[in-house]
Amino acid sequence: MGAVLKVGLTGGIGSGKSEVSARLRAHGAMIIDADRIAREVVEPGTPGLAAVAAEFGEEILRPDGSLDREKLASIVFSDADRRAALNAIVHPLVGERVAELMEAAPEDAVVVYDVPLLVENDLAGMYDVVVVVDAPVETQIRRLVERRGMTEEEARARIAAQATREQRRALAHHVIDNSGSLDELHAQVDALWDELVRRAHTAPAG
Ligand code: ADP
User: For ATP, which residues are the binding ones (predicted)?
Assistant: First the structure.
């Protein structure tokens, strides 16, 4: 007996969440990438993009008809009401797409939702297990500067706009400590995978 185990994976920018997600995928996890789906539901030609344009006006479209994300982000960044209006369009569409993907998941599957803003959007309750990838802020900054070409100021600003390590850890069932080497990270992910598979096999179907 088993059931699909829903795992929410999160972590601050540069924490190593993508590394963890890739390794879980290699083990056989079904990965649901929330950011990617959120982009897909507003691709040109979708009802999602039409709804966003109806709400925010044609000026959030680029000349080629695609969504001008930077412009939309600048509108919703400082305005909670506009952000809520955007979420009211996008979230249900993401939910539908996720439900479709879930229907295709075999029994006993481990489904990992890669959700950068899980804590910020208060989504912990949606998952059987919440996994947080954690690293010291200075380590996050070093990775973002060395590997993603950000300036230190950009990296600090991005981190400051997100939940704190403490806020994330408070919601975690499982914390992956990514303050060390990639080998150390991989060993933790491999141990986590064994535990997740065990839970997927023993969880009551429901
Ligand atoms: P996130 O998805 O959390 O923003 P990534 O997984 O993309 O972060 O990691 C940021 C960068 O740091 C990537 O280039 C990644 O390969 C690298 N990285 C992650 N963890 C480690 C580690 N333990 N040691 C060295 N580099 C790492």
Answer: 14-19
